[in-house]
């Protein structure tokens, strides 16, 4: 009736876009019937309807003499448009390393789907190395491993993979412990052991975090939901009670308090102070922020100085300082109490700095960069301790100190793991070779005897840190990239998170997977961590949720911790295990009560050693 009453001066076009996605079939039928009955009565109206070529819709319209049908589904045309779209986006990014072969590969992967191309670009633009992200996408389907971690006792390794599973491996034999931990519905991005080694936590692209019993492989409780995008990173609080990114109660799965809001762009990394009182977070907004883990309040204004994305942050063991690394090629050290920068920026890298870590005694900082080097810095003077540690032939993805502080381990896209003498800067032995694709994550066992690595090749590998020899066979089970690995506190298990949406726990002695994969996440798991007591695992995912898992049973503890509205990139437990902190692309940090699962707020967090603070 309203249309009949109109007397427009010009012809009118009405567009009904995506009819096939609107309402129920009966409602679609009624709309089409109405259009048929009135098309010839309102001469000045033209109607354009877009829809997938569903037979019911075609039958309802095709025989009408005033209907013209145009097929817009030819893959060739869509591919051309996708190619133009990608070329324009890369031109805007100003990256001259993107080749025509890269674009052609992405167009082929898109298979005529614009939604795939736009989603792929979201991922490509989210990292510090665009070309590396492109290659990662082109490698998808190879079931690469995304994350690995040692159990605290060094006996097991846990891995996460693109195959949506988490697997536990015996670190001595390389054999999988039990069945894969299934539950995630997308790639796992991060895995971690609880401090006591009893649980594994995983994060996934399915937006959930899951906790698994490391002994049985069963999921502890329901998936931790709340994230609205991929979970990138998960970690247990030191006491095993909390998991981070948002902060979740590891026992109840409830979020602790409100989200920690302040960042104006995606949160990339979070960490707790050693006493658990504070959490530090970094973001694409070029800032670092410190939060009171109890109140959720920001202690001081943003720590400003970086001129590009901040990729990584870490607390010093004393909790007095925070170190950050950025795409601006610099490392900065901040006074955690005053928020003031300590000295000048640490300059030397010629490309973005991807990873930073403090030495156990807090006197040194190690950094890895896209410039293919590892560098060690004096945390007091800001001076480089020796010449750059050179050997890698592609960008360095991950660096870590051995617990005894004598060595540094690095993993690179050149498919190798390298161990360096932290005092002399010399490489210890030959590169650790075996991975058939880039190494995404490396970690030392708590006793400094072993190193675990995760890779795009879907495997987790354990290496003897003294001899450089691989211990047993690769830990295989993930069917996609492993994004995160972590040891349980007793070193007996490793937890892994993967793009395959699962978290897996591995026996480091046998190499066997412990129980079934921890499933529940519906997107990639990005980060995993053990609770300090080893009883639980926390995971973060691109499904926007954090999940806590019983590391013994593999069962999810409570419901998913929901609240984030975008990917969860980082999770961690508070030292007392009371809370979990999480960081997300939704620009918030959330703290969750690990017992109740109630929300405390935040997007990316890390507990201080005492468990009193979260950043």
Automatic annotation (TrEMBL):
Keywords, sorted A to Z: Repeat, WD repeat
Bulb-type lectin domain span: 245-379
Protein name (Swiss-Prot/TrEMBL): Bulb-type lectin domain-containing protein
Annotated WD repeat ranges: 138-179, 181-222, 260-296, 303-344, 346-387, 389-430, 432-473, 475-516, 518-559, 561-597
Organism, scientific name: Collybiopsis luxurians FD-317 M1
PROSITE patterns reported for this sequence: BULB_LECTIN (PS50927), WD_REPEATS_1 (PS00678), WD_REPEATS_2 (PS50082), WD_REPEATS_REGION (PS50294)
């Amino acid at each position: 009736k309203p249309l009949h009453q109109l007397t427009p001066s010009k012809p009118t076009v009405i567009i009904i876009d995506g009819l096939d996605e609107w309402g129920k079939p009966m409602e679609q039928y009624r709309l089409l019937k109405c259009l048929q009955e009135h098309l010839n009565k309102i001469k000045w109206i033209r109607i354009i309807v877009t829809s997938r070529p569903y037979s019911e819709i075609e039958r309802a319209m095709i025989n009408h003499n005033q209907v013209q049908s145009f097929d817009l589904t030819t893959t060739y045309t869509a591919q051309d448009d996708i190619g133009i779209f990608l070329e324009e986006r890369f031109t805007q990014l100003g990256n001259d390393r993107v080749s025509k072969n890269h674009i052609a590969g992405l167009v082929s992967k898109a298979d005529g789907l614009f939604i795939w191309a736009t989603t792929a670009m979201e991922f490509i633009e989210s990292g510090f190395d665009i070309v590396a992200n492109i290659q990662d996408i082109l490698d998808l389907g190879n079931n690469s491993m995304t994350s690995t971690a040692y159990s605290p006792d060094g006996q097991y390794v846990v891995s996460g993979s693109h195959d949506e599973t988490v697997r536990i491996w015996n670190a001595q034999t390389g054999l999988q412990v039990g069945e894969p931990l299934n539950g995630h519905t997308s790639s796992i991005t991060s895995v971690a052991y609880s401090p006591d080694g009893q649980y594994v936590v995983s994060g996934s692209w399915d937006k959930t975090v899951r906790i698994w019993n490391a002994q049985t492989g069963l999921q502890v409780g329901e998936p931790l939901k709340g994230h609205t995008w991929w979970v990138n990173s998960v970690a247990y609080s030191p006491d095993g009670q909390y998991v981070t990114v948002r902060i979740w109660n590891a026992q109840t799965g409830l979020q602790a308090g409100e989200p920690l809001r302040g960042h104006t762009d995606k949160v990339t990394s979070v960490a707790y102070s050693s006493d658990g009182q504070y959490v530090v977070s970094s973001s694409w907004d070029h800032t670092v922020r410190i939060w009171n883990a109890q109140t959720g309040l920001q202690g001081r204004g943003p720590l400003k100085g970086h001129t590009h994305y901040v990729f990584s942050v870490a607390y010093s063991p004393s909790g007095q300082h925070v170190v950050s690394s950025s795409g601006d090629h610099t490392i900065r050290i901040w006074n955690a109490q005053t928020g003031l920068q300590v000295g000048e920026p640490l300059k030397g890298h010629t490309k973005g700095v991807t990873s930073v870590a403090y030495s156990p005694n807090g006197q040194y900082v190690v950094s890895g960069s896209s410039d293919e080097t590892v560098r060690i810095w004096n945390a007091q003077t800001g001076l480089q301790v020796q010449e750059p540690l050179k050997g890698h032939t592609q960008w360095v993805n991950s660096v870590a100190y051995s617990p005894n502080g004598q060595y540094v381990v690095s993993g690179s896209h050149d498919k190798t793991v390298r161990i360096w003498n932290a005092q002399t800067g010399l490489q210890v032995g030959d590169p650790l070779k075996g991975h058939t694709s880039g190494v995404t994550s490396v970690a030392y066992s708590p006793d400094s005897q072993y190193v675990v690595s995760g890779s795009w090749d879907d495997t987790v590998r354990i290496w003897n840190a003294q001899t450089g020899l691989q211990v047993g066979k690769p830990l295989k089970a993930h069917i996609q990239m492993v994004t995160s690995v972590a040891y349980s506190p007793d070193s007996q298990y490793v937890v892994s998170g993967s793009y395959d949406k699962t978290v897996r726990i591995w026996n480091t002695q046998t190499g066997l997977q412990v129980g079934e994969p921890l499933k529940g996440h519906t997107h990639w798991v990005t980060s995993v961590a053990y609770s300090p007591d080893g009883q639980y695992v926390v995971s973060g995912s691109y499904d926007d949720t954090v999940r806590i898992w019983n590391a013994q049973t593999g069962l999810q503890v409570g419901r998913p911790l929901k609240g984030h509205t975008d990917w969860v990139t980082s999770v961690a437990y508070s030292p007392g295990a009371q809370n979990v902190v999480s960081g997300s692309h939704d620009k918030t940090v959330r703290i969750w009560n690990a017992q109740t699962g109630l929300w405390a707020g935040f997007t990316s967090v890390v507990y201080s050693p005492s468990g009193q603070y979260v950043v």
